Structure formats: C-alpha cells, structure tokens
Amino acid sequence: MSSSSAIVHSAEGSSVYITTKSWGSECVLTVKNVNSSIPDEEIRHVFEPFYKVDKSRTGNGTGLGLYIVKSFLEYHDFRFSIANQESSVVFTIVMPLSV
Q: Span of the secretion signal (predicted)?
C-alpha cells in the first residue's frame, strides 16, 4: 500500500501513521489512517478489482490499487489484513525478515 494512497483517500484532517517492528523472525508493517474508516459492509470488498468505497469520487483512481497490493502480497506469501479500529483504518502486512 502506498502511503500516498492512504493520504489521498483519507478524510480531511485525518493523519496517517506508518510503523514497522520486528516480531521474532517477521517484520510487521502497519499503516494507520486516523479519523477515517471504511463501512463494515464494504471493508471485505476493498481488495476486489475496480472496487471503490466512495462511488461518488471522480478522481483518477481506478479501483485497482489494493487489488494489486493484495496480488503482490499473496505472491510472496505475506500475511495482510485491513480493519477498522477506534475510528481508524489499519492496514497490516506481516512478512519474514529474511526472504
């Protein structure tokens, strides 16, 4: 997930935090978009090709960004998740420290 995508698709006045930490033999990368959320009924669809949460948005987005990210992560057997937590959207990637 590109941090610019998190910024572009965030609500006005929200903040984006990117953190990494090592956990045993793995690295955990977290992108947290504070004061932004995705409706619960839509969050399971965000990795589908051409899916857009905000249908009224007329910008340059194709709806392929998270689908491409998902394809890349699955190809490398990385684990990933997206969830709403305390009025924030949190995207987490877990990958081995050695590839």
A: none
Q: How far, in Å, CA of 19 to CA of 22, rounded?
A: 10
| Options 3.40.50.300, 3.30.565.10, 3.40.50.2300, 3.40.50.2000; CATH of 3-96 | 3.30.565.10
pLDDT tens-digit profile, the chain (99 residues): 444 555 555 567 778 999 999 989 999 999 999 988 888 889 989 999 998 876 655 566 788 989 999 999 999 999 999 999 988 999 999 999 986
Q: Which of 29, 38, 30 is nearest to 10 (CA)?
A: 38
